[in-house]
Amino acid sequence: MKYKLVNSFFWGNSVALSWLWGLGLFFSVQMTFLFGLTGLFSFAFLNALGLFMFGYGTQKIAQRDKGQESLERFFKRWSKPFRLSLYLYQLLAVALTIFAIVNYLLRPLLISYWPGWDEQGSILQLFTLLLVVALVLSAACLVGEEFTIKSIKYWHLLVGILIAVIASALLLYLQPQVLNDPVAWITENNSKPIFWGYMIPILIGFFVGPWLDLQQWQRAIQMRKENTNIASGYFFGALLFFLFLIFHGVLASYVFNSDWFTQDMASVGLGGLTYGHEMIVNYMVYFHSVMPWWVPAGYYCFIALAVLTTLDSGYVATKWFLKENSKTSNNPVLSMIPSNIIDSPIVTYLTAALIAVFGVLTDCEIEYFMVFYATFFVAYAALGIARCFVPNSQHSLPQVKLFSIGAFSLVVFASGYFMQVAWVMIMGSILPIFYVIWLVLNTDLLRVVKEKVEEVMDAASEIPVLRTLSKATQTVINGKTEEVSTGSHFEGKWFVHSFMATYADTNSVGNVYFGVYALWVGKTRELFFNYVLPDFNLKDTTFLILTRSFEHKYINETREFEKISVKIRASEYNRKFATLEHQVFDSAGNLLGKGKQQLIFVSPKDYKILDIPPDVIKAFMPYM
């Protein structure tokens, strides 16, 4: 019990550091700058609460099934329709973090210690920024390659201890000044309506945000594998994360209350809005001569460590995600790219670095990245949460509609933000939530109607005339309406072959012999191939299809003269292997057994293993 609690704390520390990316780290300063300690504590509490709720929710999901792999199995099923949004979420998080440390730490240091750097011309600035970003990127990739998800918590424990020492030393040094004037500095722009214009989007964004964060899913899955309570680990993580944000905000409050502080330390961005993200750095630079050397050095080290533990976590999570998805990728284009390139996060990190450099050169602010998490990703995350806990939300994702509502809410929020109109900002964030609620309720209505239609069709099928007409059916195959026999037809993406079991299929006991099921599945597979590959000819084929493995789970028995239906479809494939899934039913609809088989493709000349032929990919795609 004690070991599990210690392991929960270790993972909690890693959770806190992985969530301490640029948005939380630097935006805590901005919230203190805008709304004082009220803004800081509200921002930190909502952020930490959303993090804990993710851990609590995933713990409930993991307990639905037995075994330490239960959460991983759930994530593989759940994440399939969200793969692009998960990847984009991670890409933007990495880009935001690189942008934040370059724009709010390294850039002010370059301007201060390199006289005239910001006036030397765009070529010099661009070259320097590229070198700085390359330094950050290489450090993150180097550390990320050194650790796996199993070992990264120990590295983060060391970093967590260093951060705790630095924070304690800085607070002890600043304690007299903070105690003398504990009330935070508040700007003239602090008004109640605009305060809620920030708080409501923060509430929505950070409550649903962790559900699209690969780093958090990977940690929750690993905790489950280690038999560690996920909710307990995320409780520690939320608590430590809250303390990290409070420390940074209190430090900002001290700077804003200092007699040496001036408004010139703030920056003015697009739209004439004032930003205070880098004001602590500017304060340390301007007044480093009156402070002990370790004060600015300690603060810079705190920022660097916080960013590094986010980027290395992102590297490990991205590598894990890309590798898992490349195994089961159905994209024929990806099958032609070497797996080492597809699985590597390097391309992702280079793309994120380019986005960050573009943001720095165009004088962007961190809020311009934040708006995506408060609007665009909200619909995807909210629907993802619904699919975790609401049974009626299990349907195919309306990808175009989700993108459209995300883009629309993004524009609405951005308009309200630049105009500083609170209700417009709030509307931009809650529109995706309303859409997801409507989508789930609408799906439930369609489900009820579908059930009623199926009941009517079942009743109508017993009418003698209709039963006679149903002996020949029509189905859509490869976009063409064709007539097929009553023995074989398509039900959605399942190919179904129906027949009657006879004495030849049974054993001495009287039930169907176990080996016959494999023969039934094999025959159905060949008929399925005949439909989807009608031009296949052994005399001139460039490939042969062989069975690599076959699995079947026996669930119920059946006897002679029972109508049997074998269903088969293509479930997944990668560069080399294709997997077919099958199910066997009796006339009453009882599941007799299920399983899967893996196919390989070889050359007819030398039996050398081939990549899946394009003809097979094209034939299987409609039935995935």
Description of the molecule:
- The structure is a single chain.
- This protein is 62% helix and 11% strand.
- The protein contains 19 helices and eleven strands.
- It has helices spanning 2-19, 22-62, 70-79, 83-113, 122-146, 152-180, 192-208, 214-225, 230-257, 279-286, 294-327, 339-343, 346-361, 366-389, 399-419, 422-460, 464-469, 514-532, 614-620, and strands at 267-268, 274-275, 473-477, 480-484, 488-491, 494-500, 544-554, 563-573, 578-585, 591-602, 609-610.
- Strands 5, 6, 7, 8, 9, 10 and 11 form a seven-stranded antiparallel sheet that branches. It has a two-stranded antiparallel sheet with strand order 1-2.
- β3 (473-477) and β4 (480-484) form a beta hairpin.
The gist of it:
The protein has 624 residues and is α+β, with helices and mostly antiparallel strands. It has 19 helices and 11 strands.
Listing every helix as H and every strand as E from the N terminus to the C terminus, the arrangement reads HHHHHHHHHEEHHHHHHHHEEEEHEEEEEH
Which regions have little confidence, pLDDT < 50, spanning 5+ residues? 178-190, 445-451, 465-486
Give the strand content. 5-15%
Mean pLDDT: 82
What is the makeup of the main sheet?
Answer: 7 strands, antiparallel
Backbone shape: elongated
Structural class: alpha+beta
| Counted beta strands | 11
Q: End-to-end distance, in Å? A: 45 Å
C-alpha-based Rg, rounded: 30 Å
In percent, how helical is the residue content? 55-70%
Helical run tally: 19
